Amino acid sequence: MVSARRPAPVRAGSIREQHGRLVSVADAALPRERPRVVERRGRLVLTRAKSKAPGVSVEAPTPTSSAAVWEVVGGGQAALIGLVVISMLIPAAQNVGSLRLTPSLILLTIATVPMIGLWLGGRAGRFILADWLMLAYCLWATLALVAASGIVEALQPAGVVFLQTFSAYLAGRLLIRGPAAFKLLFRLAAIAAMVVVPALLVETLTGVKVMLKIGSLFGSALPEIIKEKRLGLVRAQGAFEHPILMGVYYATLLGPSYYVFHKNRPTIFGIISSIIVIMCAICSVSTGALLSFNVQLALMAWSRLLRVVSNRWRLLTILLILAYLGLDMVTTRSPFHTFVRYATFDFNASYNRILIWQYGSAEAIRHPFFGIGLGDWKRPEFMSNSMDNFWLVTAVRYGMPALAILVCSIIAVLARAGRIDYEDGRLTLMRRGITFGLVATMIAICSVHLWNATYTWLIFLIGSAAWLGDARWGRAKANGKSRGF
Question: Of 69, 222, 419, 424, which has the highest C-beta tally within 10 A?
């Protein structure tokens, strides 16, 4: 059998046979190449369409466009992402003088100087507004601590704030630079949840703290938190200092777990991951986790039911404002009191949160610029010093400007991503997942406080979402509007 000979590639300026004569091929004689995006081994690649002109074949695919290619995650990068996830789940700490070093804090301490150098060198891409806002937050918090306690006393807590905020943010910016790394991050987090969920179920059903027993093998285990049962279940703390922290950590994974692994439809891994993280968070029997899940599930349902409505998020905003005004007019209590009452498990907890807001906000107003640092806040003697409101704690400790800067940094990341129309629909789903997770967490921590690993994880997630606003993954509309989440 004689096979047809494949014609050789043709380049401008080369010689070929045409109608029995040797002719030189000019640029204009070559067929026009049309860009075409194809999928190869799970990556989108920009190629040039082959010519259909007889006797002419265009040279193999041209170098790909960075906007169309999912970057390859190197072994070192993948290992560091895995290390970040693991560091959140080791329930141990080492005492160095008066400083208690958790695994995540140790990791950030080692990596801070190299990360700042890489950031200044442009390895995280161009500088964005959120970068400077995160840095400004740390500087303002430092000034607040110095104003309240003096330079010597402020040195250690200011350093911790810097590590857990700016360093954690830079870690997310530098490690997660595209969709492949983003997907790997949540795949590893989901797999870790699948590994620990049996231990959490044992703890919430029997009270045996399996994770803390494992953590004691790596150093000084975290102290056990004994809480009264809720709904007949023990409040599991897992690898965290408090059940609330564990619940909020796993709640941040719901939106990303469901959307990040989407293809044309929800994947089996995404559905299983979502169920697992819900189970993990339920084991904490925490108000914060419950509130975060409810918000995310409501956003998912709204997105699905009104998927053909382009202005569905603007419509939702208007409806929420109208609902707030309606509650204010028809109820004897303020909308805030109504929200707190139905967002907590029992009346006593809701009443305590109302008192926290009343006395905590009064403290913030008395010290509006630099707060009270780590000092004690004024309250009735029957109230504990626990302030179950992350945003309120921030305002009381570091002043209202610090609160405004931190909130604006989160909004800056999400707004920057919201202006991009992605060429790949999967990126839109990724943006939707992380946006739902972060927005729900911002609402949930109105009723709980965050510290240590869970706070570090939240800031890391904010940094890891910054790449979604890079124009190389799509195009920014002139009017600032995109096709939506």
Answer: 222
